[in-house]
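Researcher: Here's my situation. A collaborator sent me these components and asked whether they could plausibly form a single complex. I don't have experimental data yet, so a predicted model of the whole assembly would be a useful starting point for our discussion.
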Amino acid sequence: MNENKQGRSKRLADRLSNMTSFKVVDFLEAAVAMEAQGRDIVRMEAGEPSFATAPAIAAAAIKALQEEKTNYTPSFGIPELRQAIAGFYMTRYGIKVSPERVVVTTGSSAALGLICDLFINPGDGLLLSDPGYPCNANFVRRAGGEPQLVPVSGDNAYQLTAELVEQYWQPNTIGVMVASPSNPTGEIIDADNQRAINAVVAQRDGVLIMDELYHGLVYDEKETSILEITDNAFVINSFSKYFGMTGWRLGWMVVPEDVLPAVSVMTQNFYISPPSIAQYAALGAFEPGTIEIMDARREEFRQRRDFFVPALRELGFNIPHTPAGAFYVYAGIENLAEDSEAFCWDMLERAGVSFTPGTDFGEYLARQHVRFSYTQPMDRLELAVERLSKALGK
Ligand SMILES: Cc1ncc(COP(=O)(O)O)c(C=O)c1O
């Protein structure tokens, strides 16, 4: 029995050997275990909106269930949802996107992995920001590629620039994958910078993948979609964040027309179709009443940011620039502690506040940063500040 187990773990594929775990889950599990023992924990580790599914979305799901719409759908998603997503680009950004180019996926996670599999040959490199969304490096590794990390810090507003892309481009680099707003920093790439990055990538005949998951959650300005600049980029988006539908596992991508046949080979084989009920539910997301609810939630998130970021600064966290969007703040701890992992475990234990060490998001200055997700209601954020203040002796 034991011998079998040993034999099996020896057989695990090499690609797993350099994949990293998602530390946020370690903190989530520890926080849940402490809660089970009766401790009250302010939960700021996960990137999950604290709001329930909007009524029109839930109603659309119930209707779909009653109508027994539980079969496989077309691999790119139901036509009415692709149409609704395409229409959203017109109402939000004033741009015409053909529904043919919209591919509905099982969460944007499936889309990110699929795009990597689409372009990366063994030995190819893909530029990613460091810090950045941790799973991306593992999607690149799964495809046999090399994640090429580009360090970003408070000095460049925690985002990629065209100059950095030029500087870090290697002979084996095939493109850039970047998120705006970013997880973990909440920082955006403005229209001029997106244009400049696109030009650098196009000059090199590369692939530009823009993760726009946190669009709709930008607080002080209007975000730019890369599709306003070029039809050649790959856009990744999701119902998880702005629409608050994390557990429904539904995302989408907008891809250039010429790759659609190759994409369809992958979607058909890899997951057949996105979940049917989630797709019908998502039709409710585009009703005017739902958009109003989501925009009101954005305002709520803005208020939470405007309370929480200055409060963290008061406690000694270093936040050189107020994050423009998403619901994250990436805070420097150089005035408070030496090591972000030890600091997060200590604060979880002593303050009962759960947040994530920078080491989850990359290597660069990762021991000097932590990420807070300010998705909790205001009274919980106030409690977090009070507890941190006490634990830090402020
Ligand atoms: C930047 C970014 N991209 C993609 C994802 C994956 O989200 P989902 O698969 O729920 O669409 C996340 C999740 O937190 C994220 O932060």
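Model: Some features of this prediction you could bring to your collaborator: The chain has 13 helices and twelve strands. Residues 137 and 147 are 5 Å apart (CA to CA).
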